[in-house]
Write a structure and sequence with these properties.
The structure holds three protein chains of three kinds. By secondary structure, chain A is α/β, with parallel strands linked by helices. Chain A is 39% helix and 13% strand. Chain A contains 15 helices and eleven strands. An eleven-stranded mixed sheet of chain A has the order 1-3-2-4-6-5-10-11-9-7-8, sandwiched between helices. The longest helix of chain A is centred in the last third of the chain and has 21 residues, at 367-387. Chain B is an alpha+beta fold. Chain B has helices at 54-66, 164-180, 221-240, 286-294, 300-311, 315-322, 325-336, 341-356, 370-381, 387-400, 404-411, 419-432, 434-441, 448-458, 465-476; strands spanning 4-15, 52-53, 70-71, 74-75, 77-81, 91-95, 101-102, 105-110, 113-126, 130-132, 140-144, 151-157, 193-203, 213-218, 249-253, 258-261, 274-275, 282-283. In chain B, strands 1, 3, 7, 8, 9, 12, 13, 14, 15 and 16 form a ten-stranded mixed sheet that branches. A three-stranded antiparallel sheet of chain B has the order 6-5-17, with no helix packed on it. In chain B, α1 crosses α4 (286-294) and α12 crosses α14 (448-458). The model of chain B has no long low-confidence stretch (mean pLDDT 92). Chain C is α+β, with helices and mostly antiparallel strands. Chain C has a domain at 5-46: Orthogonal Bundle (Histone, subunit A), CATH 1.10.20. A two-stranded antiparallel ribbon of chain C has the order 2-3. The chains are: A alpha/beta, B alpha+beta, C alpha+beta. Chains in contact: A-B, A-C, B-C. The interface between B and C is large, with 59 and 35 residues.
């Protein structure tokens, strides 16, 4: 059942929050061993929050769509008093002294926190295999990855272990796992949702968004978390529209651009035909589909793998063993203590990116790498601005391939990174992008399509997605595991 | 010695007098118990973000405008990356490639006339925490993050100073400007006004700079001047003995009176500056600059000129009075309460300054309200008390903070300006001293002083001296 | 930029040290190879002529930026201190720091 359906049942008192919460906790207990979605369950807190929500529901006291609704958060979200590790050994045992924006908004709305979800360490990965808690398995096929880095979030929602979840997306970390797990994921415009209390990976790219069962749930969650936050000076002050009310399902007269550069060699034929079929479906609903060009697409990945590691190298400098997290044991002088704590605490992929990021910023290389990448970023952003002169939204694949096998790409960073070639440009341009199911492969794995919108046009984007969803049944597929 | 010339540039870190820190809402108040003014942001907890303090920007703009800098409409906060236990994020947020203020200068007086020391830039940054090395454990240091994130401006001068004295004068003038602007408390000992000095020497007449050393740990104006003088001498000796000066950071040892090499195993610093992606470029609109400019207070130099021309007080007094903004305000308040300017200047620069000269609070330590000092001056001007008694009354006023008239009434020291009272006292003394009267009348006019003394004794010093003189002369000569 | 394999290893080792990571224990030469492969991949940006192009640090520049100068107590100091791996009274304790190091 969708979050919206559960929300109305709670409101109508057809079920209590306590009953619903217990049902989910039992389900997690029983079935998550197979998937490893949760890195932390907080049943006591959840039951306490549920019974308080029930009081609120009984009194009809400032009800929101989330009052009494169980949710789960990627372990990148800071939750006061609840261990938050970002799936890293370096933060093992870290009990945050504050609540992040997402956690405090959802808490105030009356949501019930089921637990924290697995992810690639510090959100660096595309398969959820780089987690200190071990990989998550794809509920459609446990030999496959659920995608990453929000793999736990996507798998939990797909498997019915959470009605809805939050993820983060720096280069595709919401959209790619949402596609791999047959769920709906949205990365809003950079700045639409506060980053306060989201453990930073790459600050100019990170964005928070929902992973949900359908578009309506997605709209409901975005409405709860979007908006200006005085604690994040990059968050946007523009008022938040009613996203659910904006779901009209009408795409007549809309122009949808399909970028030629996203259908180049290397793309899986099943993925390509599913996305092309989706274009036809939208055409059938009254939209006009045109081919567009995003000429710098092929440079986006290289651009990203300079900017993101550079920012990460500084963002992850605070994990030094002094104020929180892992401190190496034994007698160390200060320099050794930093080195030992960090070397022991970070996994190999994180260390790799820190070194790459440190290198591209270091004296003598800054202009050739970092500054160059920032200029290429301008070109990529301009590609989109140009394209949006002739279309309202862009339709593209989310990934070049359907879900791949666990272990298939872990030893080759470039092969792993190539998974994100279609999602990364959207982060570089700061645009809203979403992923929704548009097909199934011959072997029964989900295929996703990506819709990319103009800045702050989440409502328009979700409306197109909603129209497509109403006309198809892909989102109703449920994995058996 | 004389064949070398010193080249000196100073880097000043001034703590801005904001209520909250640069990027979070923690208090900046000094003297709080350790680790009490801390929050998730300034201790670099995961997931936290900086948000710029508007007032810190405004204060930096003020300083920039007062020092003749160009205020950049767009400036950028960068991350300066290095690891240290007092630096929670592993980087310091500091403006680097694009600072808020460029250019400007500070004018000082030298023997050869006025000289302007150029400024290269003023930029904003956050302070680090504090490390304690003596908290009970020999192998451990202890970190206090109270100061961490406090806003600073760094003011970088050009290499324009040529002597320790010029450096000291530059620093005093700069401090005075910042204190006048109310943007910095300017206390070197407490560390809210810190200075590093770059010193090199070169043969007189040569254009190229020599190798410079950077001096740290300069906790007073005197330390700045002494360390530079020491360093010039040291470098001269090195060069004269055929050696070369090595580029390094040296610590000033104030007790030993010398600079010492830090002998650090510094692996070459590579701070990897890049724009902080958590902060958008700082945009300062033209009207913000204009509003700030129109709100600038009158600075010391202008104020001194105005005192000379409006109040007709000696330039020397004007300079003393304007050296401290609060003192200048006090002076003007005394005048506003009705005291003649010259008298007010005299009383303040002589009597009052003597009382407060050892108190670092300055004029704030003076318990005499401006109106009360004006009252005292008025009593003297009107002849109600003598100037000599005035000084005694002043001392009592300083001790008690009470009004002059009250003290005068209580002591009964009001001057006798009633001629009949003085006449009767004079008559009495004349009658008692026939011999001295005779001497006076015989031409020995010096005995007048004897009569003055006797009458003063009889009136407890309260007779108006001028009137007494006149009456005495009249009576003795008839 | 960098040519010989030995140079690369040395540069990567130095870079890791700058980031306070110990390169040797991060999986030895395989680690260096990975770093190298990423660096050579991203070097393809050199194909592009970017002269006259402004750099982009943020794609969207609409945040408000500034906060008012109001101090308030976070109320979090005890939680912050108790998160530290080594605490001594009101302080966070670290191995002796030699100034200037």
């Amino acid at each position: 059942m969708t979050a919206a359906q559960l929300s109305s049942m709670l409101r109508e008192r057809e079920i209590s929050s306590l009953e619903l919460t217990k049902a989910y906790l039992d389900e997690i207990q029983r079935r998550d061993k197979k998937l490893n979605c949760y890195v932390l369950q907080c049943p006591e807190l959840a039951l306490e929050q549920a019974s308080r929500a029930d009081e609120r529901l009984a009194k009809k006291d400032s009800l929101t769509p989330f009052t009494g609704l169980p949710i789960a958060l990627k372990d990148i979200f800071i939750t006061q008093g609840v261990e938050t590790t970002c799936a890293s050994k370096i933060l093992k045992g870290y009990i945050p002294p504050y609540d992040g924006n997402a956690a405090s908004r959802l808490k105030a709305a009356g949501a019930v926190l089921l637990g924290k979800l697995n992810m690639d360490e510090f959100a660096m990965g595309s398969s959820n295999e780089f987690s200190s808690f071990g990989p998550v398995k794809n509920p459609w096929n446990q030999e496959c990855t659920p995608g990453g880095s929000s793999g736990g979030s996507a798998a939990a929602v797909a498997a019915g272990l959470a009605p809805i979840a939050l993820g983060t997306d720096t280069g595709g970390s919401i959209r790619q796992p949402a596609a791999f797990c047959g769920t709906v994921g949205l990365k809003p415009t950079y700045g639409r949702v506060s980053r306060y209390g989201v453990i930073a990976f790459a600050s100019s790219l990170d964005q928070v968004g929902p992973i949900a069962q359908d578009v309506r749930d997605c709209a409901m969650m975005l409405g709860a978390i979007a908006g200006h936050d005085p604690m994040d000076s990059t968050s946007i002050e523009t008022p938040v529209p009613d996203y659910v009310a904006a779901l009209k399902g009408d795409v007549k007269g809309k122009t949808i651009g399909v970028p030629a550069e996203y259908f180049v060699s290397g793309i899986d034929t099943e993925v390509e035909s599913a996305v092309r079929a989706a274009a036809k479906t939208l055409e059938g609903l009254g939209a006009r589909v045109v081919e567009i060009s995003l000429p710098h697409t092929k440079y986006a990945l290289a651009c990203y793998y300079i900017i993101a590691p550079a920012e990460a190298s500084a963002n992850l400098a605070r994990y030094d063993g002094i104020r929180f997290g892992h401190r190496a044991s034994g007698n160390h002088d200060l320099a050794d203590l930093f080195k030992a704590s960090r070397t022991e605490g970070f996994g190999a992929e994180v260390a790799l990116r820190i070194v790459v990021g440190t290198y591209v910023l270091s004296s003598g290389y800054y202009d050739a790498y970092y500054l160059k990448a920032q200029k290429v970023r301008t070109l990529i952003k301009n590609d989109f601005l140009e394209a949006f002169k002739s279309c309202d939204a862009i339709l593209a694949p989310v990934t070049p391939t359907p879900p791949f096998k666990l272990g298939e790409k872990t030893d080759d960073p470039i092969q792993m990174y190539l998974n994100d070639i279609f999602t990364i440009p959207v982060n570089l341009a700061g645009l809203p992008g979403m992923s929704l199911p548009c097909g199934v492969t011959g072997s029964g794995l989900p295929i996703g399509m990506q819709l990319i919108g103009k800045p702050l046009d989440e409502a328009g984007l979700m409306n197109i997605a909603y129209a497509y969803e109403q006309a198809t049944a892909w989102h109703k597929n449920i994995p058996v595991f | 010695m004389s064949s070398y010339e010193a080249v000196i540039g100073l880097e000043v870190h001034a703590q801005l007098s904001t209520e909250s820190k640069m990027f979070c809402a923690c208090s900046t108040s000094a003297g709080s118990p350790p680790n009490t003014n801390i929050c998730p942001v300034c201790t670099g907890q995961p997931g936290t973000l900086p948000v710029v303090n508007r007032r810190a920007i405004e204060m930096a703009i003020k300083a920039g405008l007062a020092l003749g800098c160009k205020i950049e409409r767009r400036s950028i906060f960068a991350r300066k990356n290095y690891f240290y236990p007092d630096l929670p994020k592993g980087y310091q947020i500091s403006q680097y490639e694009f600072p808020l203020c460029l250019g400007g200068g500070v004018t000082i007086s030298t023997e050869g006339g006025k000289k302007t020391i150029s400024l290269i830039r003023i930029h904003l940054e956050e302070d680090a925490g504090k490390l304690l090395h003596d908290y009970g454990h020999p192998d451990m240091s202890h970190v206090d993050f109270n100061r961490c994130g406090v806003p600073l401006i760094e003011i970088v001068s050009g290499p324009d100073m040529r002597s320790p004295k010029e450096a000291g004068d530059y620093l005093r003038t700069l401090r005075n400007v910042l204190v006048y602007l109310d943007v910095c408390e300017g206390n070197l000992q407490e560390g809210n006004f810190r200075c590093d000095a770059n010193v090199s020497i070169r043969p007189v007449g040569r254009k190229e700079f020599g190798t410079r050393t950077e001096m740290k740990n300069l906790n007073s104006f005197k330390a700045v001047e002494r360390s530079i003088a020491y360093e010039i001498e040291r470098q001269t000796k090195v060069l004269e003995s055929g050696g070369t000066v090595s580029q390094e950071t040296r610590l000033w040892n104030d007790v030993a009176g010398r600079t010492e090499s830090m002998r650090s195993k510094e692996e070459a610093h590579d701070y990897r500056y890049f724009p902080d992606p958590d902060l958008l470029p700082l945009i300062v609109e033209e009207d913000w600059i204009a509003r700030t400019r129109s709100g600038l207070p009158e600075l010391a130099g202008a104020k001194a000129e105005r005192f000379v021309s409006n109040y007709e007080i000696p330039r020397a007094d004007a300079l003393v009075l304007t050296d401290d903004r609060a003192l200048a305000d006090y002076f003007e308040a005394v005048i506003a309460s009705g005291a003649p300017a010259r008298k007010a200047a005299n009383w303040i620069t002589a009597e009052l300054m003597r009382e407060i000269k050892d108190d670092e609070r300055g004029i704030a330590a003076c318990p005499i309200a401006p109106a009360n000092l004006a009252g005292l001056i008025k009593l003297i001007e009107e002849g109600k008390i003598s100037g000599k008694i005035g000084k005694d009354v002043f001392e009592m006023m300083f001790k008690t903070g009470r009004a002059a008239a009250e003290i005068v009434a209580e002591l009964g020291v009001e001057q006798i300006s009633d001629s009949s009272a003085i006449e009767s006292a004079v008559d009495k003394i004349i009658a008692e001293n026939p011999k001295q009267v005779e001497q006076y009348r015989g031409g020995k006019t010096a005995v007048l002083a004897y009569f003055v003394g006797q009458v003063m004794k009889a009136t407890k010093g309260q007779a108006n001296p001028q009137m007494l003189n006149d009456i005495l002369k009249k009576k003795l000569e008839t | 930029m960098i040519k010989k394999t030995s140079d690369i290893k040395e540069v990567i080792e130095k870079t890791a040290s700058l980031a306070r990571l110990s390169f040797e224990s991060s999986g030895s030469s395989r680690f260096a190879e990975k770093v190298e492969s990423v660096l050579s991949y991203v070097a393809q940006l050199n194909e592009l002529d970017t002269s006259g192009i402004e750099p982009t640090s943020h794609a969207v520049l609409v945040g408000s930026g500034l906060r008012e100068d109001k101090a308030h107590d976070s109320g979090a100091k005890d939680l912050i201190l108790s998160a530290a791996p080594s605490r001594d009274g009101p302080f966070i304790q670290v191995p002796k720091v030699i100034e200037g190091e």
